[in-house]
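Intended use. Records like the one below are meant for learning the mapping from a protein sequence to its folded structure. Do not use them to infer anything beyond what is encoded.
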Amino acid sequence: MKVRILRQEASDATPHWESFDYDGARGISVAGLLDHINFHDDIVTDDGKKTSRIMWECSCLQGVCGACAMVINNVPALACETFLRDLTGDVVTLRPLQKFPVIRDLVVNRNVIHEGLKRTNVFVGEYRPKDGEDHTHQYTVAKCLKCGLCLEVCPNYTSGRSFLGALFANDCYLVYARNHEKSKDIRKTYAKNFGNSCSKSLSCMDVCPMSIPTIASMARLNR
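Structure written out for the chain above:
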């Protein structure tokens, strides 16, 4: 199996491809594959050239932190939850998320996600629930990892300056449901930064590792 990785030594460096050989079991995840390549002191490409360790992020390796988000065979996904046995062909292609600044190799800077939430004042604050809460949907929405996969695949999301994406819509719903004093303002914020610009391709739901039904949050906020 060939493993092609788009590498970048620094944020201002030119990206380039490197290829590696892998002849191990197909039962491991992409995260395990990266660990396998990085294991040896001398790391060589498929043409025998020495290279540096591949930089990538992880925290839990159990699909609950979102740190290992990357593009795998052109599909945004978590490396720890994507297994080689489920990939077609004999080539695995890895590249960093393209909607965020690259720090190095497969590591990107996703600060724009949290800065957008801070800028728009989307946080619950004091818990002041509305009557007749939908606890089931709130629990589902609260699983959001802020991994950025929904933004990577979204045709409307670019820089995060105006349209803030599906994760923003879900957080808006949480604030709307859990603090009735902020509900009026949060609906205006939602419309301005998401609702008025979403083309409803729903690609965000296709790649969400937590299977969050963003369309349900949208429906509740649009009522």
